[in-house]
Structure formats: C-alpha cells, structure tokens
Amino acid sequence: MKKRMTVLLLAVILAAMLLSYGAFLLAAAQRDPELIGMAAMRGLLCLLTLLPLAVLAAVLLARAQTKRLADPLNSMDLSHPEQTALDRELAPLAGKLKEQNDLIADQMRQLREESANRESQRREFTANVSHELKTPLTTISGTAEILRSGMVRPEDVAHFADNIYRESQRMTTLVSDILRLSQLEEAVPAHKKEPVDLYGIAQEVLGWLQEAAAAKQVTLSITGTHATVLGSGKVLSEMIYNLCDNAIKYNRQRGWVKVTVRVSGGQARLTVTDTGIGIPKEHQERVFERFYRVDKSHSREIGGTGLGLSIVKHGAIFHGAEIFLRSYPDTGTVVTLVFPKPDAEAAAPQDAETLRN
Q: Does 203 share its domain with 342?
C-alpha cells in the first residue's frame, strides 16, 4: 500500500512539473519569442531530470502490481483453489485448477477401485485354484493309501489305478488351462498374429470333437463361408474348441450344435448355436469369469476346469473381438464372436502356405 502511494505521489509531481513547464513556455512565447530557445533548453534539462523519476515510478508500480497478483497465488490452497480470494483476472485460473483437481481425484478413485478389484480377483483365483487342485489330490492320496494298505483285491487294482490316472489328468488339464489363460492375460508375444481362415479352423475343431459328440448323441454341423481373420490360429482353435465343447457337454441327448461362419460389414463372425439346457439370465454376465459355474454339482459330474469360457473371453480380447451371448433355459444358447475388420493387406487373398487352418 505504501509503495502504491509513493508511485502515485511521484506521478502527481511529474504531472505538476510538466504542467508548470507548459505554462512557462506559453508565457515566454507571449512576451518574447527569443526566450523560447532558452525555455526549450531548460525544458530539456527538466525532462532529463524527470526521466529517472519516471522510470523509478514505473518500476515501483510494476513491483506493486506483481506483488498484488502473486501474493494470493502464493497463499493459495491448491487442494481447494476456489476458496482463495482472487482478482477478477485470476478467477478463471482457480476454476481450471479445481477442474484439474476433480479430474485427478476421479482418476485416483478409479485406480484404487481397480487395485481393490484386482486384489479381490487374485484372492478369489488363488482360493479357486487351491480348491480345484485339492479335490483331485485328495482322491489320488486316498486311492494310493488304500492301494498301499494291501486291502485291494488284485482284480480291483486296475479300477483304483484308473481313478488315479483320471484325477491326475484332471490336474494336468487344469494347470494347462491356467497357463494358457495367464499367457492370454499378459499378451505373451508367443502368439503371433497372421491371416488365418476362421472357417477352416472351426471345421478342424469339429473334427476333434466328433467322438465326444457321438458319445452324447449330439449332431455337429458347420455352415457359412471362408473368412480371413488376423490372429493366432492356436488361440482361435482353443476358443472355438471351448465353445463347442461346452455346447456338447451341456446339451441334451439327440441335440445338435451348429457353427456358422460368415462375413458381415467386412467383419468375420463366428456363431455357435446349441439346443442345450441354457443359462439363466442372472448368470449370463458371469459365465466368462474364471471358475464360475452355474450349477457346480452338475458341472463337476460333466467335468472340465471352469476356465474354458474365460479362455474364450481373453482370446477375444487378444484378437480385439466382441462376444455376444443369448441363452434361454431349456431352449439353448447362442454365442457370437465378432472380429474387427482386417487390414487391407491382411484381407487380400493368401496362398495355401499363408492361410493356416
């Protein structure tokens, strides 16, 4: 405040001196024109004297204005900038800072929620894996204990050995599925993307499942056209295998499973339709979660690791594909994979060595 008063005083003095000098020149011109030259020289000396004062006044005024603007900024609470009293020129700055703070707070909240979700999923996954491994290990341990005790008749040894083999195979399958799922989640570079024929892969997978389908009296069929997808043939095979395997396992006797491959709007689409038991609506959003089973008791009778549809989901993410599920209890299920449009180069016709089935 004192500096501003000093600057104003200097400005008043400078203005008074300039006015006095103007009046002096006017009076001199009226009395004697020859005095104008002398008056001009005196005026020049006066201006040279006043110039440092003018510069000093400008410097002091600038410092005072800068301090007036900087003091509120230095004392501003960056967590709540809107609570700081600012000049009209700086008010928009406080608004921008508040918007940035709100955005950062929202992002931090999302990160905390995601971290909590990941931790919850990790614990759930660990518990599920432990449970899934404990069941066959308990069976193997119990069967081995009976064999070791000598209580088994020689003709029954093969039956107990078969139990051990079946449970060990179940563990092997579970570990393999966990490894596949881990690789897909981490986008392991081992899965190289290249142009592949989706129809050819689906046709090959159905060939692998013919025996299982025949045992369940389920008819397998494929229809549609060849469609090129930029992806991993191995991962696509696993995705289609798990979809069709589920469609067979949860089907009814003398039911059917149909695979359709087509191209719509430049996008390849693979649809698996079955006449199975269907999925209740309240479970449909969770069936692609790891180890999630709609009917746990029925699922254990049928077999499987509970990771098949989760592998499908992460395989779709790996390929940038979308999954659409429609299911009606006691009617059947329709699962559709929609793949993104391939690049022009990838979509061009490929020779037999490039198109991998």
A: yes
The answer to whether residues 257 and 219 touch, using CB atoms and an 8 Å cutoff, is yes
| More confidently predicted of 10 and 149 | 149
Torsion angles phi and psi, residue 319, rounded to 5: -95, 0
Quote the pLDDT of residue 274.
Answer: 96
- Contact criterion met (CB below 8 Å) for 251 and 257: yes
The answer to whether 63 and 6 are in contact (CB under 8 A) is: no
Q: Is-contact 209 245, C-beta < 8 A? A: yes
Same domain, 69 and 180: no
Q: Are residues 229 and 294 in the same domain?
A: yes
Segments forming the whole domain that contains residue 244: 194-347
pLDDT at 344 exceeding the cut of 50: no
Q: What is the DSSP letter of 339?
A: P
Cα–Cα nearest to 83, from 69, 71, 97, 70 = 97
Residues 6+ apart with CB under 8 A from 339: 198, 229, 231, 267, 268, 269, 270, 319, 320, 321
Which of 119, 156, 54, 121 shows the shortest CA–CA distance to 289?
121
